[in-house]
Amino acid sequence: MKIRKITVLFCGCAVLLIANVFAQQTAQMKEQHRPQIHFSPKKNWMNDPNGMVYYNGVYHLFFQYNPYSSVWGPMHWGHATSEDLIHWQQQPVAIYPDSLGTIFSGSAVADENNTSGFGKKGKVPLVAIYTQHDTVGERAGKNNFQNQSIAYSVDEGKTWIKYSGNPVVKNPGLRDFRDPKVMWFAPQKKWIMTLAANNVVIFYSSPDLKNWTRESEFGKDRGAHGGGWECPDLITLDDNGTQRWVLIVNLNPGAPNGGSGTQYFIGNFDGKNFTSDQKETKWMDYGPDNYAGVTWSNTGKRKILIGWMSNWLYANQVPTEKWRSAMTIPRELKLQHMDDDIFMVSQPVAELAGIESKPVTIINIVANGKVDLSKQMGTIKFPCRINIKVATLKDFSLSFSNNAGEELVLGYDKKDNQYFIDRSTSGKTGFQKDFAARHTAHRIAKGPKMNMSLVIDVSSIELFADDGLTEMTEIFFPNKPYNQLHLLSNENMLIKKLEYSRLKGIW
Ligand code: FRU
Fold it and tell me: What is the number of helices (H) and of strands (E) in the chain?
């Protein structure tokens, strides 16, 4: 009898304890400004996405992580996994600093043919290729403090063993020499590493991921050079049956709306040289908050990119004290022709539909002045998705607001042929001088028809206009959630169709 009572008591306590831990965890992921459909670390600092590889049904997302504080510091690789690119489980820290330095950005591949010899008993090794940043060397004024190293995992990313021959690519004397992105170049059966070096990229090749040969460099007088080049990526995208090469290059500062941004070059790669006859600079995302984006490896022809949803201008100051930064929604990349030009377009991955509720659809909304959309849509709640179709594009804006007088405004400005997002009075903006601003993006599409898809979380908006030809990503920090939505136009603008659907939180 006594034993039974003790057992019942013990079980009861255990249930309470588990419930309490669970409640705490849930509360932790529901703090003010915590994104509900985007990955963010439970606590502390995160920047670039790293080492993204798809293997055995799991998407791995590693990331620049400081496990000790919510500002940038000694970099480790944090780790999260997902089966659908939407729901993420944070895993223990994957790669720790060592005597060669802290662990900066890089990539990971599934070495299916065991070219590295790291695979044991038929197990495919995952190989991570990353920059080691030697802080001591940097402080001592050396100029070779960034070198490339590798580590491998034979338990699907849980534990990593560093290669004894590190570093595998030694610095030739360049202060910025980092962020290796590696891909398999099938025609010549070799690995290609794309590396950012000051303000160009350098290509290396290797048969085994351990021995690397310099092949060529690209970019000296090409593209934007308002800041240093970082986090490059070399991919192929389908262009009506032929494969085109695209070189993605992040740069900081020098983005179209200030600070960090991502440009791309469409061209050709022959295993040695990347060439492109692209004349003007092409930007992937005109918003200020999509940086260091690169793609998953091992996803076949499908190319999925994720970016860090912040900007080096203010990343360390954003008003979330326990954790800092989230990733963008993963986006699928494609090519699209426009007249005689070609562009890379992005759309949220189709998997987002898995958390989307049935949309409320409103047709034929005419705006001449200000229209309160919540009358037809019901009170607006984030996270949500809004799709708009317009037959004749005119000046218009959408304003998300709360009763604290804060608003986030986006729209289209016909005079300058620009989309815009204005977060000047969006809430907390005073933590850094550049944050409160109106940002613009040139409209690439032509003709009067327009479609726009908005993915909105509690502290971010991702705008995809004209099937993803123009993209803008922005973060914001309202003191109270926005719960009103107004459409404004003085031009008798007609929205043919508006769809509003809630997105179910992932935590
Ligand atoms: C880009 C970057 C990378 C570097 C990492 C350090 O945001 O500066 O070039 O590897 O962040 O955390």
Answer: 3, 32
Q: Are residues 254 and 371 in the same domain?
A: no
Q: Is 48 a catalytic residue?
A: yes
User: Residue 115: CB within 6 Å of ligand 1?
Assistant: no
- Tell me how far apart the alpha carbons of residues 154 and 176 are, in angstroms, rounded to a whole number: 31
* Distance from residue 342's CA to the centre of ligand 1 (Å): 29
Is there a single domain that holds both residue 335 and residue 403? Answer: no
Mean pLDDT of 224-233: 98
Q: Give me the pLDDT at residue 210, please.
A: 98
Give the mean model confidence (pLDDT) for residues 116-126.
96
In short, whether 150's Cβ falls inside 6 Å of ligand 1 is no
Domain edge (last residue) among 314, 348, 382: 348
pTM higher than 0.90 for the full model? yes
Task: Tell me how far the alpha carbon of residue 105 lies from the centroid of ligand 1, in angstroms.
Answer: 6
C-alpha 110/C-alpha 225 separation (Å) is: 33
pLDDT, one tens digit per residue, over 311-350 is: 999 999 999 989 999 999 999 999 999 999 999 999 999 9
Cβ 81 vs Cβ 59: under 8 Å: yes
> What type of residue sits at position 168?
V
192 CA to centre of ligand 1 in angstroms: 20
Pocket mutation for ligand 1, best pick of 62, 72, 104 (most atoms within 8 Å of C-beta): 104
Q: What is the pLDDT of residue 491?
A: 93
Testing ligand 1's pocket by substitution, the residue of 62, 69, 171, 178 carrying the most ligand atoms inside 8 A of its CB is 178
* pLDDT score recorded for residue 1: 44
Are 442 and 340 contained in the same domain?
no
Q: Is the C-beta atom of 292 inside 6 A of ligand 1? A: yes
3-state helix, strand, coil in the chain (%, to 5): 10, 50, 40
**Ligand 1 nearest-atom number relative to CA 228:** 9
Give the model's pLDDT for residue 15. Answer: 53
Q: 51 with 60: CB under 8 angstroms?
A: yes
Tell me, yes or no, whether 103 and 71 share the same domain. Answer: yes
